[in-house]
């Protein structure tokens, strides 16, 4: 192996970018390979609560914690829990100066991380087709464009449908039984003042049994809402997903009995409904070590979206980078990293599954039954 290992990180999500940033801070070259054509190819999604015991640890290692705190929204930690009649059940407001889990839009976080890297670190429009471990301990990445390149360490940070994971594991994500349908509202304070007031500065969650309506304040007077329910993967069978009015009618029928002000989240949204079935990896998800390959974030431990994934990915990225910095070789570094990460992710994934079951029980009860951990 060369004195300076050739390291490739596949995927430019928060975990992969934190890993790259920490490596570069310590003078170790790294290449990030991203299938998207440009940084602005698509929306990066909604808001994230970055927790001081996980995600903020990664940002501190990356030397970016102060910049993050300047961008983040501590007021976004507000939580309003209501029943389907829109009656307030619980209301949590953060104390002044509380930075335990402030919110930041995914796009803002990604830009912060991208801007911290040496120019040219990310190779855009590089989609990996296959990851091939070689007998000498190196790894060949084969790209969809027909080219290939070899590295001493390949880090799969490429999410749920990772193209690196098959080099380590046969595991495939499975449907959890829960679907989130996303809608959004632009310029909400001016155009939808009633919805803005209902949501507040953070998150509003209305639920009854297997049905939930979740709305989150994002930056720039923007709200994203999620129509979340337990149901079959093909819940929309017989409906053209492009037929917005047909999807709307189907969802309104499912949520009959919810207060009219809550149903406005389905009636007044901007644009189409976006279907997000929740997939998860087995718990625990482990593998036999393969020289030159490892995983982080969703590629390693895809969990329900209960505020854990991005935080663990950034912690993974920082710890993997630190192991590479501290250890004499790639194999020692990966072994040290995986020993900690696999045990931690198994515990966290089990907890995340339990949280999802508590939040989205397989019952038709009209009682909200919010778990205590929601504040």
From TrEMBL:
One of its GO terms (cellular component) is cytoplasm. It is found in: Cytoplasm. Residues 7-323 form the FAD-binding domain. Keywords: Cytoplasm, FAD, Flavoprotein, Monooxygenase, NADP, Nucleotide-binding, Oxidoreductase. Consists of an N-terminal FAD-binding domain with a Rossman fold and a C-terminal substrate-binding domain. An FAD-requiring monooxygenase active on some tetracycline antibiotic derivatives, which leads to their inactivation. Hydroxylates carbon 11a of tetracycline and some analogs. It comes from Streptomyces yokosukanensis. FAD binds at residues 49, 106, 298. The lineage of its organism: Bacteria, Bacillati, Actinomycetota, Actinomycetes, Kitasatosporales. This is Flavin-dependent monooxygenase. It comes from the Bacteria. GO terms for biological process: response to antibiotic. The keyword Hydrolase does not apply. Its EC number is 1.14.13.-. Belongs to the aromatic-ring hydroxylase family. TetX subfamily. Its cofactor is FAD. It catalyses: a tetracycline + NADPH + O2 + H(+) = an 11a-hydroxytetracycline + NADP(+) + H2O. Its main location: cytoplasm. HAMAP family: TetX_monooxygenase (MF_00845). The keyword Secreted does not apply. Monomer. GO terms for molecular function: FAD binding; monooxygenase activity. NADPH binds at residue 42.
